[in-house]
Amino acid sequence: MEAKKISFDIAGKVRMGGDAPVSVQTMCNTSTDDIEASVQQCREMAKAGADIIRLTTQGLKQVESLKKIKERLRAEGIDTPLVADIHFLADAAIAAAQVADKVRINPGNFAKEHNVACEKFSHLIEICKKNGTAIRIGLNHGSLGERITNLYGNTPLAMKEAVMEWLKMCIEHHFFSVAVSLKASNTVVMVEAYRLLYDAMRNELGYIFPLHLGVTEAGNGDEGRIKSAVGIGTLLGEGIGDTIRVSLTEDPVNEIPAGKAIVRAIQDGYRSGSGRSTVEASDWNDFIIKASCLWGPALLDKSIDTIDLIGSTIAGNPLSPEESEHFSNMLLQACRRRFTKPEYIACPGCGRTLYDLQSTFEEVKRRTSHLVGVKIAVMGCVVNGPGEMADADYGYVGEGRGHVSLYRGREVVMRYVPQEEAIDKLLEMIEADKSMPGGPGGADRSRS
Fold it and tell me: Do residues 54 and 26 make contact, with C-beta atoms less than 8 angstroms apart?
């Protein structure tokens, strides 16, 4: 029997799944408790064409703030669905389900004991059924929990297995207003996890739930757009994915045109196996997204080793040698094939971020640009930081206002470092490690 494709409406405004168009979403980086700033950012996002907007909702106080934000927006005629982003507190998720149009949760974070987490998730499902609220089960690489990693390791398989447990519970409760995400900053891990889950839903569940695609902590500029287009474009080109977010360490409004450009590129035939061999682009951003969608899948799957940009044009003009080299290097690194510069993992920031993430990230990039192949994470807070920078060699993680924790791998090395000293301390740690066996640059990272 053919698997059933699940689709549902969010607040009666956005259809997700089935044959519905791919929706593009983003997330506020304002404090949810700053009602005015959040409303203004939502206005800008709605004007830019965001189909769905997410706001961080750490606790019950933020649920009340979200309620006020929603009331203000609806009074202005802005009916874009709002998603409450919950990380740990089941009580906050249950309260948010009575306010938001959708809640984003990782049920495994509700309790350390799996049976308790299951009980809390079951309660949340019933509240969502009663209030017509959708759920996104969001499970990122590095946030799997000890029980799953003990069974399957910190792998794409583990990501798939963890989500399948929660989806089976949803089916048992006859609740189908559910989307799923399995994000990673590593495009190879991200694509493999979604492929595994899609096949498992089709072959084991008999239901294909809508999938939310994204390369988490993609960074900014060309790098963030290319990495996102590689991961998201590969899957959309295979018919996998129903809604997307391009996570950029920039003004979140910038994520919307980038996401729409990826969807448009796939629709225009810029995907692997389409027969296209050149790119015709209107500008640089249009080019890097189309070209990443076209050649990224084959590089990821190692069916090609290089790309040929001869014949591709931007505004009718061939690429310069400098443009060709820059893009080729960025694309090969995004596909984890060849590293010619540091690899950066940077979250886009949200209401939990208590420092200027964007300018700090730029300064870290400037001062570490010589560290070819070293993976450096710049994260807004300790909620996402230690888990979602699982692929990094070093981490710079916000910890309270004006302070930072520094990590070597997933081990914290320095806590509560004043922000004005933190980049210096990070560089000192990396330089000290360079002389050690297996330190930065000491291993072959070209195929990692």
Answer: yes
Per-residue pLDDT at 382 exceeds 90: no
Q: How many domains does the chain have?
A: 3
Residue 327 sits in which domain range?
216-338
The answer to whether 262 and 294 have CB atoms below 8 angstroms apart is no
pLDDT digits (tens, 9 = 90+) for 263-272: 999 999 999 9
CB 316: neighbour CB atoms within 10 A? 8
* Other CB atoms within 10 Å distance of the CB of residue 369: 10
Tell me 423's DSSP state: H
Which range, 178-182, 382-386, 433-437, is most confident? 178-182
Gyration radius of the chain's alpha carbons: 21
Q: Which residue reads 């060699």 in tokens? A: 393
Q: Are 331 and 292 in contact (CB under 8 A)?
A: yes
Q: Quote the pTM value.
A: 0.92
How far apart CA 162 and CA 141 sit, in angstroms, is 11
Residue 386 confidence (pLDDT): 67
**Cα separation of 290 and 312, whole Å?**
11
Say whether pLDDT at 437 is over 80: no
CATH code, domain with 164 = 3.20.20.20
Residue 353, helix vs strand vs coil: coil
Phi, psi at 446, each rounded to 5°: -65, -20
Same domain, yes or no: 23 and 145? yes
89 occurs within a structural domain: yes
